[in-house]
Structure formats: structure tokens, C-alpha cells
Amino acid sequence: MTGNPAAYPVTVMFRQDLGINRLWGIPLIGVLVRVILAIPLLIVLGVLGIAAYVAILLLWIPVLLTGHQAGLVYTILGGYLRFSIRLLAYVYLLEGRYPPFTFGEAPDADVFVHFEEGQPINRLWGIPILGYVVRYIVLIPHLIVLAVLGIAAGICLYVAWIPVLLMGRQAGLVYALVGGWLRYIVRVGAYLFLLTDRYPPFSLG
């Protein structure tokens, strides 16, 4: 696993020690087959997305009333982020095994995502509409960085098959760039969804 659990209340780690079957490194075909195999995951993600949308409409209520986020919101929105990142990691050849059909942490999975629940969150963020709009605004610098990193990750996808085909594992540089981009997405999403009150760091690590 890579990552520092103590650095931020949202942890994303990738298991790099299991290796990846070299057949996934066959140019174009390997990634194309993975995308096809990911279709059931996309369907599940779409269904979960509906629940996530409903949760987004209501997530401000527990913050405004209690100064903490509700456990159910962590389950739904945390699960949505977790499932999304595992799916992307699979398509980008960062994991060798098929992602589990679970929204939970799944410690034995190739991608581990953890949210520290019960963190105090400023009740001002729970002000209806205004709190959410302000969060979007303060996240604009991060959204710009994520867009640039997304382009770099997309380019990386064209060469990510090479180390898999040659070595039977993914290169550390790909984990650093694409894995860092995915980690960044989860942190920004957690802040936007009021799962944490700590502003995301400008870091891939």
C-alpha cells in the first residue's frame, strides 16, 4: 500500500505488491476488455449515483443541527466515492483484480479508501444552499488542478499498458500520477460532500 493515513482524514492507498497479469498490457485490447468488463460496475455506480444525489440534497441538515456529518451520509457518499475510484483504478490498470461489489472499505481490495467519521464540521457549512455554493467557490483552484491532472492521466492511459506488458506490474510513476489524481479526487469530493471540514491539500501524496 502507498499513502499516509495520518496526513489527512481521508485515506486512499493502492496495493502495488500483487502484480498485474501481462495480458492486460496487450495494446488497446487489454484496456478495451477492461472497459467492457467494467460495465456491470458502471451500472451499479449509476444506481448508487441516484442515492448519492438524494444524499447531497440532505447532507447539510446533520451538519447544521449537530456540527457533525451523519453516518448514513458517510455510507452513501463515501461509498459512492470509494466505488468510483476503484472503478477508475481498474480501468487505468492500477489494480490487478476485479473490484469488489461493495461500497465498504474492503481492506483486502487493491484500492483502500477510508473516511474518518465523526469529525466536527463548522455548522455554517450547513446553511442551506449558501454553504454548498461557498464550498464550490473555495474549491475552484482544486477543480482547475484536477482538470489539468485529468488530462495528464488521460495521456498516461495510452502508455500505462507498457510496464504491465513488460514487467507484469504497473510502474511507480503511473501510481504516483494517476493514483495521485484519484486520491486528489476523493479528497476534493469528501470536502465538497461535507465528509470533512479540512481543506484538501494541494498534493498527490
Which descriptors apply to this entry?
single chain; 205 residues; mainly alpha; two-stranded antiparallel sheet
Your description of this structure?
- By secondary structure, the protein is mainly alpha-helical.
- The protein has helices at 29-37, 39-58, 60-66, 71-91, 130-138, 140-157, 161-167, 172-192, and strands at 10-14, 111-115.
- It starts with 9 loop residues before the first strand and ends in a 13-residue tail after the last helix.
- The relative contact order is 0.21.
In a nutshell, what does this entry contain?
The protein has 205 residues and is mostly helical.
Largest sheet: 2 strands, antiparallel
Largest sheet, spatial ordering of strands = 1-2
Helices, by number, come to 8
Number of strands: 2
Helix content: 40-55%
Mean pLDDT: 90
Present the secondary structure layout.
Blueprint: E1 10-14, H1 29-37, H2 39-58, H3 60-66, H4 71-91, E2 111-115, H5 130-138, H6 140-157, H7 161-167, H8 172-192
Antiparallel strand pairs: 1-2
Helix pairs in contact: 2-4, 4-8, 6-8
